[in-house]
Amino acid sequence: MINKLVEKIQKTGAPIVVGLDPMMKFVPEHIQKKAFSEYGETLEGAGEAIWQYNKELVDHIYDLIPAVKPQIAMYEQFGLPGLAAFKKTIDYCKEKDLVVIGDVKRGDIGSTSEAYAVGHLGKVQVGNNFYRGFDEDFATVNPYLGSDGVNPFLKVCKEEHKGVFILVKTSNPSSGELQDRVIADANRPLYEVVGEQVAGWAQELMGDTYSYVGAVVGATYPEMGKVLRKVMPKSYILVPGYGAQGGKGKDLVHFFNEDGLGAIVNSSRGIIAAYQQEKYAGFGSEGFGEAARAAVIDMKEDIAQALDAR
Fold it and tell me: Are 27 and 257 in contact (CB under 8 A)?
């Protein structure tokens, strides 16, 4: 699947992944009203609203981007109807030939980690039959329980030709409380030690030019990204923190290799709720899809200009 992701990035010229992270405050009123008229102000109504919201967003941007990244917590908050919307969103994005990165941040051990890996990337056996659960192409994984939590995902990725993005240096302000701590016997910060571990795992699962094992490194820490790019030369870096969290195109150049590849930048509410920003307010809530498309085009240009200037 990493080969497909690289090919689609090259084809679109957009190293962009759109985070499909719906919150009810982002869903335009006309969509909410229609869903609630059919299902009531219930969890089922919420699930229908976020599904219809996602569908229209995807219809307006699928030809511009290589991938989407639904964040499962935004769906889990609505219980089973929310998870149904999560699955419908994944399936619809695949119909549009988008690569789907399941932002699930799983991290556990043993049979629990195996079950997470099977549920999101693999197949589960029911009697004599095998079924795919959520069936994303990639999943985000928390490595801080050690290789016991990661190896089951690597096993499934090898079987299914799918991939993972492993959390290395996250974009949130307090990430440094633990991730920046210097490890005495390594004389390096923890995030760099984890990056070295990711580089080792990456060598085990290589695609044509990049590994099926990628990393998550926040755009809000560009200097650390520069170091980690060298530590993990064959890992694609998923870069959150662009836009709403403060990251700009100029902050991203160190995440890319000299070939112009090696990184894919995430924007969530900066695109899916673009119509709520002053810059795109002219589209109105009815034109939220067109606003999202305009935001994608602007983001693509911002990144391209930054890469050309480096």
Answer: no
- Asked if the model's pLDDT at residue 310 lies above 80, the reply is no
- Mean pLDDT score across all residues of the chain: 93
Dihedral sign for Cα atoms in the order 97, 99, 103, 107: positive
CATH number of domain containing 129: 3.20.20.70
Report the first-to-last Cα separation within the chain, whole angstroms: 29
Band of pLDDT at residue 82, cut at 50, 70 and 90: very high
What is the count of structural domains for the chain?
1
Q: Does 105 participate in catalysis according to the annotation?
A: yes
Q: pLDDT by residue (tens digit) across 157-202?
A: 999 999 999 999 988 889 888 888 898 788 889 999 999 999 999 9
Angle ∠(90,4,113) on CA atoms, nearest 5:
55
Q: Which of 105, 123, 155, 250 is catalytic?
A: 105
